[in-house]
Each structure stands twice: as C-alpha cells, then as structure tokens.
Design goal:
This protein is an alpha+beta fold and 209 residues long. It has seven helices and six strands, in the order ααββααααββαββ. A four-stranded antiparallel beta sheet has the order 3-4-6-5, covered by helices on one side. Strands 1-2 form a two-stranded antiparallel sheet. Strand 5 and strand 6 form a beta hairpin. Helix 4 crosses helix 6. The radius of gyration is 19 Å and the shape is globular. The chain starts with 6 loop residues before the first helix and ends with a strand.
Amino acid sequence: MTRPPTAAQRRMIEAADPVTGRLRGTETQLAALVKRGLAFRHARPPHDHFLTPAGHRAREAEAAPEPAPEAPKPTAGGFAARVGGEEDGPPAGPARAREVHSAWQGLLELRRMTNPDGAMDRPCGWERQHLVRAAALALEAAGHPPEGTGTGGYRVRATPQPEAVAVRGPDDATLRACAATLEKAGWQAGEHTDPRTRERYLLASPRRV
C-alpha cells in the first residue's frame, strides 16, 4: 500500500494551482511526489511539475468534509475518460476538468517517453492498445461534452476494423469539431455513413507518421 504523503508534501499539494495542478517546491521535494505517483514532470521547458489524478484526489480528500454514510464511493481503478453514454459517470465541474487536464498532460509525457523519436504529436503504444479510452480522453481534454442522459455529445465505440474507433454525435457540426480535435491530437479521422441507418459517424485511427 502506498504511504500517505507527509505533512510537508500535503502542504505542497494543497498549494498547487487549483486549475492546472502546477506545483512549487525544491527538486528533491518534487521528485519525491513524482516517486509516489502524485506528480509528473512536464516534458517541455521549463519542465514544471503538475499533480497527477492521484495527486488531485489527495488534495480533494484533504479539503473535503467527511462524507455522509450514503455518499457513493469513488469508482475503483482510478481515472477513466468519458466515452459517452455513461449514466453514472463522474459529474462535470472544476474537479473533473482538473483531472482530465492532468491525465492528458500525463499522456503527452507518456508519448515523449515511449515513442521512439520522442514525438508528442503522435499517439503512443498505450493509445493503440486502448483506442476507445485514448480517443475519448483527447475529446474530453479538448472540452467536448460526452453523450449523457438527456444531453447530446460524442460517443466513442470500438469497431471491427483494426486500430479504428467510431465516433458519433448528434449532428454534423459535432462530428466536424471532433474530427478537428482528433487530428490535432495525432489521429486520422474521416466521415462515413452507416449503410443501414444512414447515420453519419467518424472513423478515427492513430496516426503513425
């Protein structure tokens, strides 16, 4: 089991930027948070440190009052991008925005560390193994609303095609916006029409070069 942060580390976590999670401290202090999985070092200069989703949860746990007995427990397994259609997904709000931002920054760092040329503008191996989650994270991080109960938005689903996901939305404007976001994130996306339902959708796959 991971040891809880020390009092000094808790103070650093509480003092982090409320939106970006940017941290201040000595290199030794910051490295200790990275080792615990509570922070990550950004790949680009000036190589600032930011809270990970676990770091944000640690801060919120310190600030939040004791929950009522009937309060729902957090979903096991840590952060999960909204793929659309979840009826009991995490609520939108500042906490969710911070968590998504931190997850996206962490994914960019993973690209830098695992792509052979260190490229951050192209999906990495993890994304190719988790296509739906990766595409959904790119969309949610860019501010697109996922499909939910009573709301329009994107929905990402697996397809029989290798390395491809289907992205659906309530209208053509949503599909075009999602396509632009995915292409900016290093994906290839093209519009298609379902031959049976005549519904328009995107077919998106990670770009290799």
